[in-house]
Amino acid sequence: MDTVLLSRWQFGITTLFHFLFVPLTIGLSTIVAVFEVLYWLSKKPVYDKAARFWFKLQVVIFTVGVASGIALEFQFGTNWSEYSRFVGDVFGPPLAAEVIFTFFLESTFFGLLIFGRDKISSRMRAFSATMVSLGAIMSAFWILAANSWQQTPAGYQIKGGRAILVDFSAAIFNPSTFPRFWHTLDGAFMTAAFFVIGISAYFLLKGRSADLANVSMRVGLIFALTATLFMLVTGDIHAKQVAETQPVKLAAFEGLWKTQPRAPLMLVGIPLPSEEQNILEIIAPGFLSLLAYGDIDAPVRGLDDFPKDQWPPVSVCFFSFHLMIIIWSFLAILVLFAFFFRKKLASKRMFLKVLILSIPLPFLANELGWIVAEMGRQPWVVYGILLTYQAASPLPWWYVLLTVSAITLLYVSLLFLVIHLLKREISKAVTNG
């Protein structure tokens, strides 16, 4: 057994579980804030009803997200102590800023909405919900700034075998921070939008809570359409940044084995890393060069331009990236049809079922995007500076295996509990009409 591999599995499982809840928390907190503001401005009871219902679901999601996030941070000290020693001076400040400036903001007003909702005015409720949304978004920024530093490190010097922070601004606003932040934030809004749309479709299918379903569907569709279209922009910006700063990652998720001008964009294909070629290809000649550099004749660096021991796992990156694109394409078509049929959705029973079944797809796309980002950085834990195997704690393999098993069992149990609690709240809304 390999301690490093087991530690990577443990961190990966924890991260993927945690990231089920983070995007939904961010997006749903914004949607709840919209309903609270609409109620404050219009005093229409339906907006109050919508705000209350979606906030109940938000409470469940937020709670599990915070708990899993704490477990994630503990692993920096338990499984990745060498990493913590090496980057603590750089990685610590943004995490501290996230807690001091954003988490306290978010949790304070979140608590006010939980315990004092009926004791404060509608204006204060709207303000509190907006602060929760702002806190969630700002929290995401600080976490992504810290993680982006691992992708494109800046503002540091190596002294005494450690990365020392010399320019806080350069470290926080490193080349990948804003591309990743806007792309992740957009993914969060997409996730929450399709979550709201899917549950609203369930209400319409059951013929209950029509007022809640209709207003939620309208707001969900606006968020979904905007976020889905904006994903073209954020995805393009992020891809260009990756091409500039992590070209080996781009080569891996596009299956580009050789450096070449007019590099093709692979639309369909299967990479064979052992043979360094692709089979069953359908390509668009020159389109990778055009998308990456804005010039159809621009050369794009292939995997042959890098030592093999610095290649990320090509198949994992390739299939994760392309499946993410397929999911986005399907959701884009789905939301366009939903927007077109928005006045007749209640009668489109089969389409409503498709909307319900599509709820997990944005979650899957988020997870795949995270896999591409993190696996594409391998074998580095800090790109170009610290290798992953150098960052792990010197633990016995059986200890890590035991904790991996325990964490996996715990997270599976928690996931079933979350699904049960969400289903219970939704069933209550259906029963009460």
Summarize the model shown.
With 433 residues, this protein is mainly α. The protein has one domain.
Description:
This protein is mainly α. The protein has one domain (3-259, 301-432). It is 73% helix and 7% strand. It contains 14 helices and six strands. The protein has helices at residues 3-42, 45-78, 81-116, 122-151, 168-172, 177-206, 210-245, 247-254, 287-293, 314-340, 349-357, 360-375, 388-391, 397-432, and strands spanning 156-159, 162-165, 265-272, 277-284, 380-382, 386-387. A two-stranded antiparallel ribbon has the order 1-2. The protein has a two-stranded antiparallel ribbon with strand order 3-4. A hairpin with a 4-residue loop joins β3 and β4. It is globular. The model has no long low-confidence stretch (mean pLDDT 90).
**Helical coverage, percent range:** over 70%
Gyration radius (Cα, Å) is 23 Å
Q: What is the ordering of alpha helices and beta strands?
A: HHHHEEHHHHEEHHHHEEHH
User: Could you give the order of strands across the largest sheet?
Assistant: 1-2
Mean pLDDT equals 90
Total domain count: 1
Terminal residue distance: 55 Å
Helix count? 14
Largest sheet data: 2 strands, antiparallel
Rough shape? globular
Q: What structural class do helix, strand and pairing data support?
A: mainly alpha
Beta fraction: 5-15%
Would you identify the regions where 5 or more consecutive residues have pLDDT less than 50? none
How many β-strand stretches?
6
